[in-house]
Amino acid sequence: TVVVHDDVDYYDEDGFRLDFFPDSGSVGFATHVGNYYGVGNDVIHSHWSTGDFGGVDLITITKIGGGTFDLNYFILTSNTDTGGSTASGLERAWVEGFAASVSTGAPLLLPSEDWGFPATPIFLSSAFDSVDEVRIFVTSAVDCFGMDEFFIDEPAPGTAPEPSSLLLFGSALAALAAYRRKKKA
To answer: CB 58: neighbour CB atoms within 10 A?
Structure first.
């Protein structure tokens, strides 16, 4: 798409909500959803209150109507304290899972990321399984922050199957080998 929606308060897709706090509509030039980087790829992009361009203090991801979910992966398209430019390495943006308002593990420090693409894949641990909220926040000067390709309730790309799937696959191979031995005999 070539559309970019500016000053987005929240974004709903496939039963999930990504919410920007405070209400970005009253701040101006703080949040964007769409083809923000001009590469034909829809993303979310925000400007933190610790930077020069926005007023976002917190981003949350929740399931619309409540319930738990697994956040397994996303790509980080921007995490820089210099708007529209390269990262300094001093950026401190974090992602943390919660269940019933209790943290499910230590917050994960996200890597610094230059503005735009290419982007950095972020694979999340089991601390982001069975959560009812994911919070993204900063503890230092960060200006531009962007994300794309969320894998929610589905395995991250390129990850190994679950051990039970491997066991089932191994059983199927053993049964096939036994069938072939029997057929040859």
So the answer is: 14
